[in-house]
Specification:
Elements (H helix, E strand, L loop, with lengths): L4 E6 L4 H12 L4 E8 L7 E4 L2 E4 L1 E2 L10 E4 L3 H14 L2 E4 L28 E3 L3 H17 L1 E10 L5 H18 L3 H14 L28 H13 L6 E8 L6 E9 L5 H9 L4 E3 L11 H4 L5 E8 L8 E8 L3 H14 L1
This protein binds adenosine-2'-5'-diphosphate.
Length: about 350
């Protein structure tokens, strides 16, 4: 497809959908027409694209006639519901949900890592989980250089991971707590009491303001959460290594936007922080921010709004005496590289 494309975005009014519109614009994607789709609640809302106002339409089975590429970010059930309608219309679906990621005939693509997989699609291409994308932009080039044997990750995931309602819940709980408590002692003593009187949590199972909790998505029989198992299974699929050893603890933290991850990597051969920095310096989609003496390391506030993943705190793992271990910290905007930006990059590969 060399001509400009007719694009639709399902879930255009959501936290990721809004970033999809902006990413098409920022990346100068060749759009000949843009359809913005959401639920009936949003019909008539207007959104701006390249200086023009576009009215949001209701998502229906008929929405995809004359569409080349449909970007989906309205949740897994919506993706499942409309998959056939998209495929029947001849459009290619690029789906941000977890609905089809592990299906054999659905490529799961990070353009910097496995762009060649796009060619294997049968009408649907899946966008990986946000923390998996952010991690693999940094890990895949190191895997190619040194042969990854084992990976242990701990994530620090922002409120934005639960969409606009997650960010609103963080802000409203923080406001309520600050308004009700005069000092630190009062804040900690009255924490549960104050939160019991604001809107009941909708986006998260636990309080998000001034708290962290190791619970993202549902618990599985093996004691991991579904989010943690996405890191395991999606990394294996994207790196084409079904036996790769991966473990993860996913944690929700009260940063507003952009996810961070602490990564412990074990390679087949010895490596040094200098070699790792040299490989990452020329890796696409990544910026090395690694000067601790000057206070420079990856942080979610600096990753926010960036298409690139930030990598730093690169050091030898001292618990691994044979020199094959590396520790590092990465941060990436989960709404952009972890979702919308990656989806638009996949569309570019088409
Ligand atoms: P709407 O704004 O009309 O509810 P977020 O992840 O930020 O919560 O956003 C979810 C996105 O998915 C929104 O654009 C929302 O539209 C859209 N959405 C949710 N459920 C449906 C549905 N059943 N049909 C169409 N769009 C939906």
């Amino acid at each position: 497809m060399k001509r400009p494309l007719r694009v639709a975005i399902a879930g255009a009014t959501g936290a990721v959908g809004v970033e999809m519109v902006k990413s098409l614009e920022r990346r100068s994607f060749p759009v000949s027409s843009l359809k913005l789709l959401a639920s009936a609640r949003s019909v008539g809302k207007k959104m701006r694209f390249r200086g023009e106002e576009i009215a949001v339409e209701e998502l229906t089975d008929d929405s995809f006639k004359g569409v080349d590429v449909a970007l989906f970010s309205a949740g897994a059930s919506v993706s499942k519901r409309y998959r056939q309608a998209v495929v029947d219309s001849g459009a290619v679906m690029i789906d941000n949900s977890s609905a089809f990621r592990l299906e054999d005939d659905v490529p799961l693509v990070v353009p910097e890592v496995n762009p060649e997989d796009v060619a294997k699609h049968h009408g649907v291409i899946a966008n990986p989980n946000c923390t998996t994308i952010i991690m693999l932009v940094a890990v895949a080039p190191l895997h190619r250089a040194f042969g990854l044997k084992r990976l242990v990750a701990a994530t620090y995931q922002s409120a934005s991971g639960a969409g606009a309602k997650g960010m609103n819940e963080l802000l409203s709980q923080t406001r309520a707590l600050l308004a009700a408590a005069k000092d630190m002692e009062e804040l900690s003593e009255r924490y549960r009491d104050v939160l019991s009187r604001v809107d009941p949590p909708a986006a998260f199972a636990d309080p998000i303001a001034f708290n962290v909790f190791p619970h993202i998505d549902v618990f599985q029989p093996n004691g991991y959460t579904k989010e943690e198992m996405k890191m395991v299974n999606e990394s294996r699929k994207i790196l084409h290594d079904p036996s790769l050893r991966v473990s993860c603890t996913s944690v929700r933290v009260p940063s507003l936007r952009a996810h961070s991850e602490s990564l412990n990597l074990e390679f087949a051969r010895k490596t040094t922080p200098e070699e790792v920095r040299a490989v990452l310096a020329s890796a696409p989609g990544l910026r090395v921010v690694d000067d601790p003496a000057a206070g420079r390391y990856p942080m979610p506030v600096d990753a926010t709004g960036q298409g690139d993943v930030l990598a730093g705190r690169i050091r030898q793992d001292i618990s691994n005496p044979d020199g094959t271990g590396i520790d590092m910290f990465v941060a990436g905007d989960q709404l952009l590289k972890g979702a919308a930006w990656n989806a638009v990059q996949i569309a570019e590969l088409l």
